[in-house]
Amino acid sequence: MFDRYEGGELAVLVHVFFSQEKDIDDLQEFESLVTSAGVKPVQIITGSRRAPHSKYYVGEGKAEEIAEAVKASGADVVLFNHALSPAQERNLERLCECRVVDRTGVILDIFAQRARTHEGKLQVELAQLRHLSTRLVRGWTHLERQKGGIGLRGPGETQLETDRRLLRGKISQILMRLGKVERQREQGRQARSKADIPTLSLVGYTNAGKSSLFNRITCADVYAADQLFATLDPTLRRIQVDDVGTVVLADTVGFIRHLPHDLVAAFKATLQETREATLLLHVIDAADSRFEENIHAVENVLEEIDAHEIPTLYVMNKIDLLEDFTPRIDRNEDNLPVRVWVSAQTGEGIPLLYQALTERLSGEIAHVELRLPPEEAGRLRSRFYQLQAIEREWIEKDGKVGLITRMPMVDWHRLCKQEPTLLDYVV
Prior knowledge:
Elements: E1 10-17, H1 24-36, E2 40-48, H2 60-73, E3 77-80, H3 86-96, E4 99-101, H4 103-114, H5 118-133, H6 159-194, E5 199-204, H7 210-218, E6 235-241, E7 245-251, H8 261-266, H9 268-275, E8 279-285, H10 291-304, E9 312-317, E10 328-331, E11 337-341, H11 350-361, E12 365-372, H12 374-386, E13 390-395, E14 401-408, H13 409-418
Parallel strand pairs: 1-2, 1-3, 3-4, 5-7, 5-8, 8-9, 9-11
Antiparallel strand pairs: 6-7, 10-11, 12-14, 13-14
């Protein structure tokens, strides 16, 4: 089906500046992307234009320069830090006589390498097929021919039409399977909602340290590395927060500037954890000089998936890379924590993060004094111990057990529903 040049390990990188101020950081980020994909850059070619060229994206002279660089360096692939049209990809491939991949293709390749779970692999395959479907037209010249030869001539569909039909069928199959996964996730979310269990969702720019923070808080062993898109598959763990009780923490895929729309659509089931969260923990690399732009890029994606109105706590990570910086909590005019400065690597500031979570999630606290009759005391005391809610207890002269309890109001109301007689013992 594919009449394309094979990809390889050595690459020529191409970046075009469209403004007078040359944004070197964008190019450096693309180099990190390429390295994360396991490809070795052998040469970087830059240029400046007011607008993309219709045939090659770059000018004809620059396209010739790229082709010469490919031959001189022995590169196997040309990687563009821009979105190319199918026709531009094909024209460049003819000229350079090697594979040409745009930014979206590079990100898709990284996602394909990192997907571990069945759901993650399905999501990546869906994004790849959607990307591929736009490259059938004018992508492969032989696909326009009708099947010919003895016994095959006639009004049958062209090869291009056949491939389109096969792609549509495959995409439909994957959507059905992802729909099943989404329904299963929805059941889990509904169960947590009925149990009044708050959900925290870690969001942030790729390589901001979300998985390292997740591992630090949950003592989990989620894969974390100093590379872009180390995490693709969502991981959920339960943690205990003072005055709140059990909380579910979700680690999610990182965002990036110019994240392809196909990927946002494909990872809808994963991002649903973000949309349904009680509180978003927006993890930010405080040592990155562009962290404000990264925040803006993440907020754009959150708006795209309708998660921008969920309450957010900013977690300024990697303070160990800043000089003479101590952990702290920044508060708003209502004295509510809005920003916590921590280091997931060293553990500095993690107690402050827990304190901020308590303040943001606990709401009202129920202080209740009870006198439990002897026949009920053992069972009810065990319920309070499970909630870690007993502050003091004693035995009265008449044999009743006295308790002073402290717990989130949500837990108290839930316990009263489960134990209707409890209110009779409140002092």
